[in-house]
Specification:
CATH architecture of the largest domain: Roll
CATH class of the largest domain: Alpha Beta
Number of strands: 17
Largest sheet: 17 strands, mixed
Number of helices: 7
CATH topology of the largest domain: Diaminopimelate Epimerase, Chain A, domain 1
Helix content: 10-25%
Strand content: 35-45%
Oligomer: single chain
Distance between the termini: 15 Å
Radius of gyration: 19 Å
């Protein structure tokens, strides 16, 4: 297989999609690579492609059945790679993949199904143009703040912390005190080296803040966000994930309990920024978001 791969010149369709935004160059960028049924791309080559793209994630969609196409198939295989490794779940990469299949490939399936390392994920296009993805819901366990002072200091400095938790997905959640402002959240500049030195057995740190009843926590339609966050994942080669869908699989269920509501409006406050609408239903997190395709091309191997 390796020799066959190296002996042929391969061209694959490649796209860059900005997810969880209506505007180009906002939200979170993902590269999306389409792999036909007959084509086999080794994992090390996928990793090289992701490193070349140098985005938080690159998604690889592969046709599963002979005779299927990107236009008519309902089910695909889906993998995601950061610039340094493969990851088990990626929300914005799933939104981006669905956007390419719906908008570029003209797939008319009501619901797309993706076979992934974390099970079957689905995506559908809503009437308002949003894409809704169906992801797991992760529970979180409260930790003792005093036992995690190093990672707290590395992530948020001296900002007051209300609660700290560890999700089943191994994300550390730092809930800042309600007196902290959105501006203070946006001004955080944690260093990768300090985060990595403070804690090793997690996949990322989500810093989150209640958004209700604050003048600086309104969306473009003047509706209040329920909560805001930023997400740092140097453990996977991503200093800051601009708008991370998968971490909202933990943030959504957490804030649903805190606020006693299962439909939540969320803002991720990176420099690019993005909006997510969440619905927590039992053990699932439904995430709605926009997507903009900004680059269409091909990669030559």
């Amino acid at each position: 297989m390796a020799n066959s791969y190296k002996s042929k010149k391969i061209k694959l369709a490649l796209f860059i999609v900005d997810a969880f935004t209506k505007q180009p160059f906002k939200g979170n960028s993902a590269a999306v690579c389409l792999i036909p049924y007959h084509q086999s791309i080794p994992s090390d080559v996928k990793q090289n492609i992701a490193s070349e793209m140098n985005l938080s994630e690159t998604a690889f969609i592969k046709i599963l059945k002979e005779g299927d196409t990107f236009e008519n198939s309902k089910r695909f295989a889906l993998q995601w790679y950061t610039p340094t490794c493969e990851v088990g779940l990626c929300g914005h990469g799933t939104v981006a993949s669905a956007a390419v299949l719906f908008s570029v490939c003209n797939n008319h399936s009501e619901t797309l199904e993706f076979e992934t390392t974390c099970g079957i994920l689905t995506a559908k296009k809503l009437r308002n143009g949003n894409i809704q993805i169906n992801l797991p819901a992760y529970e979180s366990k409260t930790l003792v703040i005093e036992e995690y002072e190093d990672i707290i200091k590395a992530a948020v400095g001296s900002l007051p912390v209300q609660e700290i938790l560890l999700s089943d997905s191994k994300n550390l959640i730092i809930h800042l005190h309600d007196d902290v402002t959105r501006a203070q959240l946006e001004q955080l500049k944690p260093r990768d080296s300090e985060l990595l030195a403070a804690m090793s057995d997690i996949i990322g740190v989500a810093v989150t803040l209640k958004g209700l009843c604050k003048d600086d926590c309104l969306d473009s339609d003047w509706n209040s966000y329920d909560f805001m966050s930023r997400y740092f994942a140097p453990w996977f080669g991503v200093s800051e994930d601009p708008v991370c869908g998968s971490v909202h699989c933990a943030l959504g269920p957490y804030w649903a309990k805190v606020l006693q509501k299962n439909v939540l409006s969320a803002r991720q406050c990176s420099s690019r920024g993005g909006d997510l609408l969440l619905k927590v239903v039992y053990d699932r997190t439904l995430i709605n978001g926009d997507a903009v395709i900004v680059v269409e091309g091909q990669i030559n191997l």
